[in-house]
TrEMBL record:
Protein's recorded name: Alpha/beta hydrolase
Organism taxonomic ancestry: Bacteria, Bacillati, Actinomycetota, Actinomycetes, Pseudonocardiales
Domain of life: Bacteria
Record-linked InterPro entries: AB_hydrolase_fold
Length: 103
């Protein structure tokens, strides 16, 4: 959370003003959120998923990908924010995925 606040100065004060217990409660609430798993799993659109190995969502995304047969890539040593900032590291794999898809 602190790392995210430091990368966006406009939001830093807002994030720091939120009590840590409230942030944990929000995170916990969303862990049980059903999300869009069924819709994604039933989609006919080809998907490729990736997450950083230090991202809290890495393992849930990987498990979803394994369950649905969706290709999944791990970005070493990247947390959630670094996953966005290092998306360029995934470009060769993304290009291979796109080249393999018909159309």
């Amino acid at each position: 959370m602190e790392q995210g606040a430091n990368t966006n100065p406009e939001l830093a004060a807002v994030i720091r003003a939120v009590p840590p217990a409230a942030l944990r409660a929000n995170y916990t609430a969303f862990l049980d959120e059903p999300g869009v798993h069924a819709q994604l799993a039933g989609s006919s659109v080809p998907m490729l998923m990736y997450a950083g190995t230090a991202d809290v969502w890495h393992d849930p995304m990987r498990q979803f990908a394994e369950h649905t047969g969706t290709p999944f890539l791990s970005l070493p040593d990247a947390d959630h924010l670094a996953g966005w900032h290092r998306a360029h590291d995934m470009l060769p794999e993304i290009q291979r995925f796109l080249d393999a898809e018909p159309g």
